[in-house]
Design a protein that fits this description.
This protein is mainly alpha-helical and 272 residues long. The chain has helices spanning 5-14, 16-41, 52-81, 86-101, 104-113, 119-135, 139-163, 185-202, 210-230, 236-264, 268-271. Helix 2 runs antiparallel to helix 9 (210-230) and helix 7 runs antiparallel to helix 10.
Amino acid sequence: MPFDLEAWAPWAGQHALPIFGGLLALLLLSTTAAWWGVRRIHVPRDQSRLSPALYLGVRLAAGFAVIVTGAWLFAELAEKLGTDGRMGRADQALADSLRTQLPLAALQVFALLTRLADTATVTGVCILVAALLVWRGRRWLALGWVLAVAGNGVLNTTLKQIFARVRPVHDDGLVMAQGFSFPSGHSSGSVVLYGMLAYVLCRFVPPRGQLPLVLAAVALAFSVGVSRVFLRVHFASDVLAGFASGTAWLVVCIASIELTRWMVHPPEIYKK
């Protein structure tokens, strides 16, 4: 018997806050486990037994797998929007349940969290970080940072126009949003903004300080995405699609920056 999202949506709305806490904890634990797993098998390129080309190929293949997974998830969600309507009904059932179940105090907290990915916030952080990187003499990294953040904005706007999904009704006055709904720009924007910020900062901090940066980025992006559902300015599938597209774009940008670094500073074997 297939899993009936529409039947489970009201229950999820009634237990929204515990579910959010459980999923956030699971996500952080999974990220930590993946981080230490990668650290155990990761070898710096100057110590690897693989040839430089194969070493690069393995890293690019891992990134490509993440990109494909994100694109596949986005495509699946987009396809279900135009099929039998079950996902749309489940989205609406969850939104209706959240409307009556979430306390005002919780909504006010999430209304503050959602501001962390507003256009003004993203633009301000983008300009500030770019200026600091240029000041530190990291112009190419600054360029990659700006292209990643600005490019995601262009990508999300384009996707919204393609799918033209109407937003759910959100009349509580805490947060108002205009335009189309699918995919969520706050969700994809928070993934790219805070994911890229963690990547940039990891270039300047010692290894022991890198995992906390990654966990903070994951927690912020997830919380911002969930805030959009709790505040009913997006359907749950909009947020999942935003996470998928944002993750794929983030990996594309990081892989491009790393490939550029490799070409500018190739291993010694390529210099002979």
